[in-house]
C-alpha cells in the first residue's frame, strides 16, 4: 500500500493539467462508483416505466398514473436538505450500501406483493427518498477518489452516463416491460440495487465518518441549518450554487416538449426528438468542455457558457422550423456543460466535513427549481403558447446568467486560489494518512 501511494504521489499531475478519461477509469474506486451509478440509472428508468404500466393496468386512470410518477420528484425536494447530512455523520460508503440494500428490499416488495395503490405510493416515496442520502454520499466521496482535474473528468463521465441512460432508458425500459411484465421489471430493478451494493462493498475502501458522531452532529435539522449557513454565507459558494440553480430556466423546454410538438405535427416521434435534443447537446458539451478546455479557462468561461445555455432558447420566439428548434435546444445543452466547472469549484470550496449537506442542499434546489419552472411554464403556455414560454424562459435565464457572471467575476480569483490550495492540501493529507502495509 505504501509503495502504491509513493507511485501515485510521484505521478500526481499539477492542478492545471487536464486529465483523460483513461486515467479516470484507471482508478479502481471510480470504476466501482461509476458501475454502481450506471446500474442505478438503468434500474430507475426501468422502474419508472414499470410503475406507470402497473398503476395504469390496475386503475385505468391517467391522473393516478401521472401522480404516481410525480412521486419520484417530491422526496428529494422534501427530504434532500434534511437527510443529506447523514453523509457527513456516518461513513459515506456505509450510507451508500445501506441505502442500496433498503431500496432493493422496498422495490422487491412492490414486485412480489399485490399492494393497494396507497401502499404502493408509500413504497415508491420511501425508495426515492433513500436516494437522497445515497446521492449526497456518492457526490461527497468522489473528490476523495479523484484528485484535481480527474474529478472534473469523472464528473463529465457521470453526466454523460446519466444523459445516455436517460435517452435510451425509456425505450429499453418499455421493451423490457413488454417482454417480461411490469412486476418482473420491478424485480430486475431490485436486483440492480443489490448488485450496486455488492459492487460498493468490494470496490470502495472504508473511510471514517467526516464528523464525530455525537448528539449535536445527529441533529439533522441543526445540520440542515448549518449547511444553508455554510452555502449562503460564503460569496463563492453562493455564486456557484446560483449557477447550478440556473437550470430551472433552460430545462423548461423539456417539460413543454409535447405541447411544443403539437405546433408542428403532434407526432410522438417529434416529442421524442425534442426531448432528446437537449440531453444530446449536454453529452457533446460535457465531452468537449472536459477534454479540450483547460481547468483555469473553465472557470473564466463559466459565465459565458451559462449564458449560452439560455440564449438559444430566445430564438423560439421567431417560431423557427423543427430542425432549427432541435439545433437551438441542442446548443443550449452544450452550454449547460458549465455545470462541470461549477461543480468542481463547489467541491473545492466546501469543507470535506460538510460536503454531504452542501451537495444535498444544492441538489434539492436544482430539483425544486426544475419542478417549479416546468409547472409555471406549463401554466403560462396554456395562455401564451409553448414557443412564447420557451423564449421568455431564455430571456429570463439569460438575464439571470448575466447578473451571476458579474458577481462571479468578483469572487473568481479567490475561488481559483482556494481550489489550488485545497488540491495541494488534499494531496498532502492523502500522503500523510496513507496506511503502511
From TrEMBL:
<feature type="domain" description="Major facilitator superfamily (MFS) profile">
    <location>
        <begin position="182"/>
        <end position="437"/>
    </location>
</feature>
<feature type="transmembrane region" description="Helical">
    <location>
        <begin position="32"/>
        <end position="56"/>
    </location>
</feature>
<feature type="transmembrane region" description="Helical">
    <location>
        <begin position="302"/>
        <end position="320"/>
    </location>
</feature>
<keyword id="KW-0812">Transmembrane</keyword>
<feature type="transmembrane region" description="Helical">
    <location>
        <begin position="62"/>
        <end position="83"/>
    </location>
</feature>
<keyword id="KW-0472">Membrane</keyword>
<feature type="transmembrane region" description="Helical">
    <location>
        <begin position="272"/>
        <end position="290"/>
    </location>
</feature>
<dbReference type="InterPro" id="IPR036259">
    <property type="entry name" value="MFS_trans_sf"/>
</dbReference>
<feature type="transmembrane region" description="Helical">
    <location>
        <begin position="230"/>
        <end position="252"/>
    </location>
</feature>
<feature type="transmembrane region" description="Helical">
    <location>
        <begin position="387"/>
        <end position="406"/>
    </location>
</feature>
<feature type="transmembrane region" description="Helical">
    <location>
        <begin position="326"/>
        <end position="349"/>
    </location>
</feature>
<dbReference type="InterPro" id="IPR020846">
    <property type="entry name" value="MFS_dom"/>
</dbReference>
<keyword id="KW-1133">Transmembrane helix</keyword>
<dbReference type="InterPro" id="IPR011701">
    <property type="entry name" value="MFS"/>
</dbReference>
<protein>
    <submittedName>
        <fullName>MFS transporter</fullName>
    </submittedName>
</protein>
<feature type="transmembrane region" description="Helical">
    <location>
        <begin position="186"/>
        <end position="204"/>
    </location>
</feature>
<feature type="transmembrane region" description="Helical">
    <location>
        <begin position="361"/>
        <end position="381"/>
    </location>
</feature>
<dbReference type="Pfam" id="PF07690">
    <property type="entry name" value="MFS_1"/>
</dbReference>
<keyword id="KW-1003">Cell membrane</keyword>
<feature type="transmembrane region" description="Helical">
    <location>
        <begin position="104"/>
        <end position="130"/>
    </location>
</feature>
